[in-house]
Automatic annotation (TrEMBL):
SMART domains: PKS_ER
Organism the protein comes from: Penicillium atrosanguineum
Residue span(s) of domain Enoyl reductase (ER): 23-329
Record protein name field: Enoyl reductase (ER) domain-containing protein
CDD domains given in the database record: MDR_like_2
InterPro entries the record matches: ADH-like_N, ER, GroES-like_sf, Lipid_raft_assoc_Zn_ADH, NAD(P)-bd_dom_sf
Lineage: Eukaryota, Fungi, Dikarya, Ascomycota, Pezizomycotina
GO molecular function: oxidoreductase activity
Length: 331
């Protein structure tokens, strides 16, 4: 079967991995003769993958490198083609969608094994492409807001003031929608109001701001950052002294210590600073699928690419496109 994998070493033979030698996009290779995986234990499903997605900075994910997985891709929509004899929830021919664990990947392939807790049944109102565009981004947003930051899912004790950076991005779009649906006051930040303001208001943002205008904002209770770098550093100036700042940007995993050492977070010692890695979760997917079924959210697809174009698609995920939504790969 076909699968898109990361070559484990450079042409000179140096192993890719952390620290410091992240694979370049040229290390993404399509293999035609990868053995089709087989179910080997309870809890596994064999999926014929229909669609997956592209993540900016995927090659920066520590989990990608040995001793973990080599086949890229975490989001999937597809058809169950084999189950373990003990399987109770899923049947062959079920249409499912979900996200594999960051340390396994595996969905840029015609067939992949997923664990039952990584899949849920796909609502009929979603195409394969729309379904694949949801899980990883929506799970990351759901867990950032309601698990790690511990925002109330119904704002019973009053709305919090929540700032979201990269609000027009793949995950930012879900962060804005989920925080608004939960009843919080959302300030959506991006690098360009011209490019993003009408869209961000259309998905419910109460305020829209460009990063360069952070100084004009009233302080916020919670910041969820998806951009990192200087934007994340600037967040310290906008957070309340007892607020919560969370980043999941792939390049920002060491930011708390780094900002402390550089004095960037000085004077904000009362802020709860967090970094997170999203995990497959049936609880998150149930909440997300309920929103999808009710029509509150949908999978936004900016572009659909063929399997042979995954490398180019990965590169283009790092330039600002005109549309909002995920790049979806047809498998
Ligand atoms: N920790 C986890 O569990 C986890 C899970 C999934 C993804 N991630 C990571 O989370 C980050 C955000 O993912 P995403 O899918 O939301 O990304 P995305 O949609 O591609 O980008 C998010 C935002 O980054 C900004 N940006 C800054 N520099 C950019 C550039 N050179 N090109 C394009 N956009 C740029 C853009 O906002 P403006 O246009 O407003 O500047 C964009 O909306 C990535 O680093 C990804 O790897 C982490």
């Amino acid at each position: 079967m076909r699968a898109a994998r990361v070559r484990p070493t450079s042409p000179e033979g140096t192993p890719y991995g952390f620290p410091g030698n992240v694979a370049p996009s040229s290390a993404i290779e399509i293999h035609q003769d990868v053995p089709k995986p087989q179910i080997s234990k309870p809890g596994e499903l064999l999926i014929q993958v229909k669609a997956s997605t592209v993540y900016k900075d995927n090659l920066e994910w520590n989990e990608l490198y040995p001793p973990s997985h080599a086949t890229l891709g975490n989001d999937f929509s597809g058809i169950v083609v084999a189950v373990h004899d003990s399987e109770k929830t899923f049947r062959v021919a079920d249409h499912v969608y979900g996200m594999t664990h960051a340390n396994r990947g595996g969905t840029w392939a015609e067939y992949t094994i997923v664990m039952t807790e990584e899949a849920v049944k796909k609502p009929d109102n979603l195409s394969w492409e729309e379904a694949a565009a949801i899980p990883g981004s929506a799970i990351t947003a759901d867990q950032a807001l309601f698990r790690h930051t511990e925002l109330e899912t119904t704002a019973q004790n009053g709305p919090k003031r929540v700032l979201i950076t990269g609000a027009g991005g793949g995950i930012g779009t879900f962060l804005v929608q989920f925080a608004v649906l939960a009843g919080h006051h959302v300030v959506a930040a991006s690098s360009s109001n011209e490019r993003n303001e009408p869209f961000l208001h259309s998905i419910g943002a109460h305020e829209v701001v460009e990063y360069k205008d952070f100084g004009t904002l009233d302080k916020v209770d919670v910041i969820i950052d998806s951009v990192g770098f200087q934007i994340l550093a600037d967040c310290w100036s906008v957070i309340k002294p007892d607020g919560t700042l969370l980043s999941f940007d792939a390049c920002s995993w060491g930011y708390i210590q780094d900002h402390k050492e550089k004095g960037i977070s000085k004077g904000k010692e009362g802020v709860r600073a967090l970094f997170m890695i999203a995990e497959p979760s049936t609880e998150s997917m149930a909440r997300i699928t309920e929103h999808v079924a009710k029509g509150h959210i949908k999978g936004r697809v900016s572009r659909v690419v063929s399997f042979n174009d995954v490398r180019e698609a990965y590169e283009s995920a790092h330039s600002r496109g005109v549309g909002h939504g995920k790049i979806v790969v047809l498998i």
